[in-house]
Amino acid sequence: MFNSFAPESSQVSEQPMKTLATLDHGDSAVIVAVTESKIAARLGARGMVPGTELQVLRGGDPLLVGLDGARWALSALDAAMIQVESRPRRLRSLLQRFFS
Q1: Ordered alpha helix ranges (H), the chain
Q2: Whole-model pTM?
Q3: Residue 10: left if φ>0, alpha if ψ -120 to 50, beta else—which one?
């Protein structure tokens, strides 16, 4: 495990850790850790570092995520190496869904 991108243990919740690959379309999450050093630099250059909130725009392989106004595609293997903490879904009206 690549620990330089992992938060201190006091910051991690007691819930079992999810990976980005397990999230569904429309889910939001905060990155907790990147477990593979080979992709940590590439993800860091895209802004995918611990503490960053992102949203799954399309599930599957490749996985399409949105963060800071940008969209990034990740393979399922890369997404499985990113530990996340889920955020509750925000309820939106039908008009908000149509115009956003």
Answers
A1: 37-45, 76-79, 94-99
A2: 0.71
A3: alpha
